Prior knowledge:
alpha+beta; two-stranded antiparallel sheet; about 40% helix; single chain
Amino acid sequence: MEHAPFSPDLIELQAEWQLTYAVLAVPHPVHTTALRRRLQTLSGRLLFHPYWSGPGRTTGGARGAAPPGPRRGVARDGRGWRTCRLVR
Length: 88
């Protein structure tokens, strides 16, 4: 079986992301703010890694637009409250 030629730094970034996520996922982790920031930083570095700009490569979610969901309209009820309802 032939493997995709992922760059070593991309593999290392993914491994760091998974390790950070695993540490954050344990019950009552220490330094949650720092771990969340690190996870966000790693996510950005993974998303914008030069590997994904190669020919025929996508980041996964870029394959096509998501199907449109129901639209929500805002209306006022009798008491002046704003409520959301589905608009067709």
